[in-house]
Design a protein that fits this description.
With 446 residues, this protein is an alpha/beta fold. It is built from 13 helices and 19 strands. The protein has helices at residues 21-36, 60-76, 86-92, 94-99, 114-122, 168-171, 180-192, 216-224, 244-252, 269-274, 281-294, 313-326, 353-378, and strands at 12-17, 40-41, 50-55, 81-85, 104-106, 128-129, 150-154, 156-157, 176-177, 197-201, 231-235, 259-261, 299-306, 330-335, 382-390, 396-400, 406-410, 418-426, 430-435. The strands form 5 sheets. A 6-stranded parallel sheet has the order 2-1-3-4-5-6, with helices on both faces. A 5-stranded mixed barrel has the order 15-16-17-19-18. Helix 5 (114-122) links the parallel strand 5 (104-106) and strand 6. The longest helix is centred in the last third of the chain and has 26 residues, at 353-378. The radius of gyration is 23 Å and the shape is globular. Bound molecules: 5'-deoxyadenosine and iron/sulfur cluster. The site of iron/sulfur cluster has 10 residues, from helix 6.
Length: 446
């Protein structure tokens, strides 16, 4: 590959992650790896000898951002070492080296080799690794260090679903589940390092399974037994992998938070078929019925794509009516973005950008309406809040409700503690609350 000039081996580094939560997790692990090699993390990219751009390929905009970032970094400091990691590295490989001057290219399944690649690049040697080894990269990573009150834990990677718009099966590879014992050990290490809430991550997290026939519900029940862990979440799930056992865990496991991110993408069966989603509008809604029966207060979240090739106005209206039916607590919505190598990119009936803009606006109006309604319906409720950070005002802290809402409150409770509150007021993106003083410890009468 390109630049064959040797460079001074870097002493400082900065990892910048884009895109999904799994990239955040991978970014943390790369930072731990470089720190274990004796490099020091900097607070920003400008002051680092080595910048790792941990990239996202899901939509065109995310990919283009990488190239503009590389250009800016190069212009500011031509001597800086730049490593491109993540899904753009996997998808574009050599192409990145051709388009932009970077020193290292490393895919999401190969980042345990980052120190070696950086050393090679310093010697002026080619440093590209986009292999998807059978051997688990996790075995080669150092132990978890200090973390905040909330932690991500990757339990499953890759996807076999091949939705026709999506690059994930190509960039992250086939569905693979990490071994049960390894996950439980990492969870314990994270709790020992300060985590109180764990979010189990996977592109298809509810497809997690092992050779002993265990499923995600077994993992959740195992984590439930870790003293010191207070909250469990998981994301992202596919509707077809919502087993009854997992739904039952929402009823039985107190630490499992009443929140479910379950993307549906569209409300029309014709569009769902063209997307190769392998579920229908009705089968999706019936899954939600069962989840709500198990956990009536569950907050529902989802992902939506507008303007999939061939989507008619009437089909788009079916997505709006599905939203009316579900009443999501929150959701993410995107304009369809054709991705190289995916079947949908060459389908007939690509939708004009202005039609997509207009549909996205109507969709987001409906979702915003429901999010505000969900938050307003929470006012007056009492719940536990996990304190995550300081607020802007003196004495103000920010935390999360069980339903993943941001909550502001005045409290002396430190970061990482869980306080009982009454929710007082609600806006579209956050709520305010007052702390309910814990009942005085009763002094046993003699
Ligand atoms: N265009 C637009 N949105 C996409 N997503 C995945 N691929 C595309 C694409 N090509 C969205 C889906 C998915 C979320 C992570 O990103 O809604 O659930
Ligand atoms: Fe992509 Fe999710 Fe479909 Fe897999 S299930 S192909 S990750 S959208």
């Amino acid at each position: 590959m390109g630049a064959a000039m040797s460079k001074t081996p870097p002493r400082t580094f900065h990892v910048k992650s884009f895109g999904c939560q799994m990239n955040v997790y991978d970014g943390e692990r790369m930072a731990e790896l470089m720190a274990a090699e004796g490099l020091t993390a900097t607070v920003d990219a400008a002051s680092a000898d080595l910048v790792v751009l941990n990239t996202c390929h899901i939509r065109e905009k995310a990919t283009e951002k990488v190239y503009s970032d590389i250009g800016r970094l190069r212009k500011d400091d031509p001597a800086k070492m730049i490593a491109v990691a993540g899904c753009v590295a996997q998808a574009e490989g050599e192409e990145i080296v051709r388009r932009a001057k970077v020193d290292v290219v490393v895919g999401p399944q190969a980042y345990h080799n980052l120190p070696k690649l950086v050393a090679d690049a310093a010697k002026g040697e080619a440093a590209l690794d986009t292999d998807m080894p059978v051997l688990s990269k996790f075995d080669a990573l150092p132990a978890r260090r200090k973390v905040g009150p909330t932690a991500f834990l990757t339990v499953q990677e890759g996807c076999d679903k091949f939705c026709t718009y999506c690059v994930v099966p190509y960039t992250r590879g086939a569905e693979t589940s990490r071994p049960f014992g390894e996950i439980v050990d990492e969870a314990k290490a994270l709790v020992d390092a300060g985590a109180r809430e764990m979010t189990l991550l996977g592109q298809n997290v509810n497809a997690w399974s092992d050779d002993d026939g265990r499923g995600l519900h077994d993992l959740i029940r195992a984590l439930d037994r870790i003293a010191g862990l207070a909250r469990i979440r998981y994301t992202t799930s596919h509707p077809n992998d919502m087993t009854q056992e997992l739904i039952d865990a929402h009823r039985d496991v107190e630490k499992l938070m009443p929140f479910l991110h379950l993307p549906v993408q569209a409300g029309s069966d014709r569009v769902l078929r063209a997307m190769n989603r392998s579920h229908t509008r009705d089968s999706y809604l019936r899954v939600l019925d069962r989840v709500r029966a198990a956990r009536p207060d569950i907050a529902l979240s989802g992902d939506f794509i507008v303007g999939f090739p061939g989507e008619t106005e009437a089909e788009f209206a079916e997505t709006l009516s599905l939203i009316d039916e579900v009443r999501h607590a929150q959701a993410f919505s995107f304009k369809y973005s054709p991705r190289p190598g995916t079947p949908a990119a060459t389908m007939d009936g690509q939708i004009a950008p202005e039609v997509m803009d207009e549909r996205l606006q109507r969709l987001q109006e409906a979702l915003n309406r429901d999010q505000l309604a969900f938050n307003k319906a929470s006012v007056g409720r009492r719940c536990a809040v996990l304190i995550e950070r300081r607020g802007k005002l003196p004495g103000q802290m920010l935390g999360k409700s069980p339903w993943l809402q941001s909550v502001h409150l005045q409290t002396d409770a430190p970061i990482g503690s869980i306080v009982e509150v009454e929710l007082l007021s609600a806006g579209p993106n956050s709520l305010t609350a007052r702390e309910i003083p814990s009942p005085p410890v009763s002094v046993a009468a003699a």
